[in-house]
What we know:
By secondary structure, the protein is α/β, with parallel strands linked by helices. It folds into two domains: 5-45 and 286-385, Aspartate Aminotransferase, domain 1 (Alpha-Beta Complex); 64-284, 3-Layer(aba) Sandwich (Aspartate Aminotransferase, domain 2), CATH 3.40.640. Helix content is 42%, strand content 15%. It contains 13 helices and twelve strands. It has helices at residues 5-8, 19-29, 48-59, 72-86, 100-112, 129-135, 155-161, 183-196, 252-263, 271-281, 284-306, 334-345, 371-394, and strands at 35-37, 95-98, 118-123, 139-144, 165-171, 199-203, 228-233, 246-249, 313-314, 322-326, 347-351, 362-366. A seven-stranded mixed sheet has the order 2-8-7-6-5-3-4, with helices on both faces. A five-stranded mixed sheet has the order 1-11-12-10-9. The longest helix is centred in the last third of the chain and has 24 residues, at 371-394. InterPro entries: Aminotransferase_I/II_large, AspAT/PAT-like, NHTrfase_class1_PyrdxlP-BS, PyrdxlP-dep_Trfase, PyrdxlP-dep_Trfase_major. Residues 33-381 form the Aminotransferase class I/classII large domain.
Amino acid sequence: MKASNRIRTLTGTGDDGWGLFLRARAMKAAGEPVLELTIGEHDIPTDPRILAAMTASARGGHTGYAAVPGIPALRDAVAARLTERTGVPTSRDNVLITPGGQAGLFAAHHAACDEGDRALFIDPYYATYPATIRSVGAVPVPVQAVPEDGFQPQETALAAAAPGAKSLLINSPNNPTGVVYTPETLAGIARVACDHGLWLISDEVYDTQVWQGAHISPRALPGMAGRTLVVGSLSKSHAMTGSRLGWVVGPAEVIAHMITLATHTTYGVPGYIQDAGLHALGLGAEFEAGIAAPFLRRREIILTLLAGQQAVRAVPAQGAMYAMLDIRSTGLSGEEFAGRLLEAEKIAVMPGESFGVAAAGHIRVALTLPDDQFGEAANRLIRFANLCAARDGAD
Length: 395
């Protein structure tokens, strides 16, 4: 018996960008001293206060079925957070609690798309985006945001792709590029969404990690609250990646349908996880800034090391826990460079090609090692790139 065509073709014909990551993990398991700068995983554990709240809730008996939409207090807290950050009045009826941001993306695309609908997303993209769209039976359509435009999506390109589409997925601050979309970019995105009747799905999981500019949720723009589904989570903002706690915020009537979807898929999130999330949100902005601070420090470390040489150039690292580096001067593709770097230096980074066509000739570096190890890895990476560039220039 064959599995369904949909499940067999979720990632298209490739490995969805995870090949080098899995190779690095296998090397580490075999005892090789690999410095990993691959995935967005904090180098600190979840705060003991959050874990204590989780433990107390579980020991207190909140281990049975929890309310599928999310416990009322957590939905209220998320609603208050979005109201404060966007200025858009938000109530618990606008909030669905999900098992992480990824489940939120899945639910949002189910809400926006029917079988066979075209669903737009920006290239470069987080590696799961195309398969998430395929998983709901929609057709993924990438729209390139190119290095020459600072990886800012252009209204003209979006407008050209929009006719006949049902949705557009964006992500700012952006993974993988670290770019924060400007007010002008977001205004163009909003115009395209309104002009072409698109649902806008806004992945905002990095909204607490902004180093330059400001995070603007498109939900706050004129005419957008009724057509925007915001996906958020506590994974990045509170170092709770393994807790799998996220949300979707959108129009109440659509959230009601998404609650029905959750009833027939995830059946909610464990109550003790939700209680821990409620406690985490109560720790406030200062706590969230503390979680983000190491990534800002490491951004400064790598930008300082990059100064004064030309083989590696940084894409403006305006937000998120990554730096996207342009290594085209080496004459290598991102995949070739990352593979050789892993073999020669035992440093693992993600090839730009893992995130789409527009990021070819780049690599993504996660700012996720302690400062001293990160500085060592960055130094070795830059030295290796300069050797490659010198060799390419001599050929």
